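Hey,
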Amino acid sequence: MKRNDWILIAVLTLIPAILLTGNIIAAQKIASPCLVITVDGSTFGIYDLNEDRIIDINGKNTCTIKDGEASMTYADCPGQNCVHSAAIGKEGGSIVCLPNRVILKIENAAVTAERPDAVTG
């Protein structure tokens, strides 16, 4: 084998390694879980779960992000099902207020093999 053959082998080995490294770095940046709030099908806002805050949603609902979890803490709807729902966090989930058409959903959640896809009852 000649010198140019070795150079070609080195280049063909380095290109996939560089592309793979770039994909891994990009995937780590994207995979940060966040809370997405939609109202009547439109995105109201996207929020980082690591920053504690209280979010007023059109004066009808209030969402609280605390300790990496989001919960609906106020709703002016009669059933209050969304207020009594469990908090959602980095492992995923959603909270829905049907009368006000508000959805809290975790995007880019860390899905594990132990976590079920659905709950039946």
